[in-house]
Amino acid sequence: MVFPGDEIGYSEEYLCGKGCYEKDGRIKASVFGEVSIDNNNKLLEVKPLKGEPVILHPGDIVFGRISDVRSNMAIVEIIAKEGEEKKSISALKNATLFVSQISDSYVKDISDAFRIGDVIKAKVLQVKPSLQLTMKGDNLGVVKAFCRRCKSTMRVVGSRLQCFRCKTFESRIKISEDYCKPIGIKEVE
Ligand SMILES: [Zn+2]
C-alpha cells in the first residue's frame, strides 16, 4: 500500500501511468492504493482500492491524512480502517480532530502536532452528527510525515523526525510507536 506523496520509482526507469505523478525525476503516488508495475511497457501505476466500503463506528482505529490545520482543529481525510485496509471508505471521509484530542497533555499550538500531508493513526470518537477522531492512546499519533523542504519521507531519530534526503529535523508532539510500520508503508531512502 502506498500513500499519496510516496515515492514509487524513478522517471529514468519507468513511465508514469494512472494514480501517480512525476516530480524532480521521481515518480510519486497521487492516490492511496496498490502499486502495479508493467515491466514490458516500463509503466508504473497506483490502483486505488475497490470493494465494499467500510462503515466506521466509534472505537475503530483509522489512518488519515491531514488536509487542513486550523487554530483549534485539524481536518483529516480518512484513508483506511486498520485491519480492513483493502476496503475503501465511502461516505464520511472527512473527520475533525480537535486540539484537545491530540494528547493527554495540554497542546498550546496545534502546528507543533501536525503539518498538512502528515498521515496519522487515530481512533474514531464519534460518527454522528460529525466524524471526530482522537489521538489519545498508545500507538496513536503521526505515522508518516514528509519533509517541509524536500517532501521526502522522514524517519524517527530519537524523539524527532529526520528527513532521509536533506537531513532536516522536524518534530511532532505525538509520534505513533507504529511510525512507518502500518499497512506495509515503506521507508524510502
Ligand atoms: Zn528533506
Give me a quick take on this structure.
By secondary structure, the protein is mainly β.
CATH H level of the domain at 61-142: which superfamily?
Nucleic acid-binding proteins
Shape: globular
Radius of gyration: 17 Å
Number of strands: 15
Q: Helices and strands, in N-to-C order?
A: EEEEEEEEEEEEEEE
Largest sheet: 6 strands, antiparallel
In the CATH hierarchy, the architecture of the domain at 61-142 is: Beta Barrel
Oligomeric state, counting identical vs distinct chains: single chain
CATH topology-level name of the domain at 61-142: OB fold (Dihydrolipoamide Acetyltransferase, E2P)
Instruction: Quickly count the helices.
Output: 0
Keywords:
189 residues; mainly beta; OB fold (Dihydrolipoamide Acetyltransferase, E2P); 6-stranded antiparallel beta sheet; 3-stranded antiparallel beta sheet; 0% helix; globular; binds zinc ion
Describe this protein's structure.
Among the domains are: 7-48, Beta Barrel (OB fold (Dihydrolipoamide Acetyltransferase, E2P)); 61-142, OB fold (Dihydrolipoamide Acetyltransferase, E2P), CATH 2.40.50.140. It contains no helices and 15 strands. The protein has strands at 7-10, 15-16, 20-23, 26-29, 33-38, 43-48, 61-69, 73-81, 94-98, 119-126, 132-134, 141-144, 154-157, 160-163, 169-170. The protein is globular, with a radius of gyration of 17 Å. Residues 184-189 have low confidence and may be disordered. The structure holds zinc ion (ZN).
